[in-house]
Amino acid sequence: MSKRKRLREIEELEELEALQEREQEIVDPIQALLDSFFADGLITEVLHVVKSGKEATVYCCRAHPSLGIPYVAAKVYRSRQNRGFKNDSIYQEGRFVSDQRIKRAMKNKSSTGREAQFSMWIAHEYMMLTMLYQAGATIPRPITHNSHAILMEYVGEPQQPAPALQYVQLAPDEVYPIFARIMDNIELWLQHNVVHGDLSPYNILYWNGQVTIIDFPQAVDPRFNAHAYNLLAHDIGTICTYVSRYGLQRDADAIARRLWHQFKNARL
pLDDT band at 88, cuts 50/70/90? Predict the structure, then answer.
């Protein structure tokens, strides 16, 4: 073999290796974002996409045997620029930032401030999930989080994730119990100073006759957020509208006013 031919084969091999490295970078960005979960022995494999939404994509992952469960869900957030919430300020109102440097950076919308806000958005949802799960809310059990994602309980089977309530046809005898369960959760959250703020049949999972409520990044504290009552009324309104398709009629405004009055008077 001539020297020129050998050099050409070496160059082709190097080009192939470089191409494979680039393809690997393209294929595994999600695995890189979940690297800390692999390193901590919590997951062993990312299996498939469960749901791609306006602020995040959820993946079904194979759990490490140490967790004692077969699967977990990894909610990987989109960058702030690519999320669906256009009015973040409505939800951010009343959230406390102790670091004055970070607070100034967020106010000035610098790259540092945007990155801090992105991380705080994730940490806020994890904190909400942890507190509400401990309080007995019907939500996925949170496991841990990093700066890009939250690891939590998986609902459904690996190839059949629990569908959103929006896509389920309830039996007549299921409608009221499910409505009551959701209202109980809204009241429980309010007892713990939380309003979901974006509740709808799209972020309520249905599995084996039970509901599991998800997506709390935008949840607000009604003690410090001036928009809390309107958000609460909207949450209740969407659920009342949903059950009305089954003929169950409820006065959303009356329910919202009653709960808010009880909350304001410490009677929940």
Answer: confident
Q: Is the dihedral of CA 82, 84, 87, 88 positive or negative?
A: negative
Quote the longest CA-to-CA distance of the chain.
90
Q: CA-to-CA distance for 54 and 71, rounded, in angstroms?
A: 23
The verdict on residue 26 lying in a domain is no
Altogether, the residues listed in the chain come to a count of: 268
Hunting for tokens 């329910």 — which residue is that? Answer: 255
Q: What is the pLDDT of residues 90-102, one digit of tens each?
A: 877 766 544 455 4
Against a cut of 0.90, is the pTM above it? Answer: no
CATH number at residue 61: 1.10.510.10
Whether 135 is covered by a domain: the verdict is: yes
* Backbone phi, psi, residue 33, to 5°: -70, -25
Handedness of CA 167, 178, 225, 114 (dihedral sign): negative
Report yes or no on 128 lying in a domain: yes
- pLDDT digits 0-9 by tens, 137-183: 999 999 999 999 999 999 999 989 999 999 999 999 999 999 999 99
Q: Which two tokens stand for residue 162?
A: 């629990």
Q: How do 149-153 and 156-157 pair as beta strands? A: unpaired
